[in-house]
Request: fold
Amino acid sequence: MRNVIVTGASRGLGLAITQELVAGDYHVCAVSRRPSAELQILIDGSAGQVTHLAADLQATDQIYLLARRARAAGGPIYGLVNNAGLGTDGLLANMHASQIADLITLNVTAPILLTKFAVRAMMSAGEGRVINMASIVASSGSSGLSVYGATKASMVGFTKSLAREVGRLGITVNAVAPGFIETELTQGLDAEARAQVARRAALRRMAEPVDVARMVSFLMGEGGRNITGAVLTVDAGATA
Reply:
């Protein structure tokens, strides 16, 4: 059973990705500060297929330990899904420097460092999959999300360059760029706001977490063996 690390696994996209990978017969090291009730239910019913690894990714000096703990929990590291991130919005002129620093640390520095240590483990095996969570904001832009957009654009550049570095070693590196997704973060929108978002998409609806999770599962499996350096958009056609 191949061992995959998923960060930000307690809720939303991370939880959906964890569920999808478990269904695909992977062992998942689910990383978050603490397990949500939903993740705990999944852990309890997984017969050891999901291991929770408690970690604060803002503490970047401790990230090197995650790869060690993941290997101890599930064997050689085959895959890494860098999903954890902050979505803080706000006009740049009004954002406090600490908010900017937190966004860059969690959305850029932490995934790069974790990838460094995970890729070292993949090199030994001569195979592996790295999947970075980007966003359509990285290419389309959005008012009030300039810093967030910058962090996600950096992950696209990181993905493409790293794919070149490690491709000869049998490791693929890709990014998934979700659009407006049906999660608990969007459920607070009123009906008209949700309808407006849906009208802007070619399919006249918002994508769901499971759609992103299935893309991740595809890239993690044999179907993705010759896909690397790519950015796969899942947005119901909002950017079509």
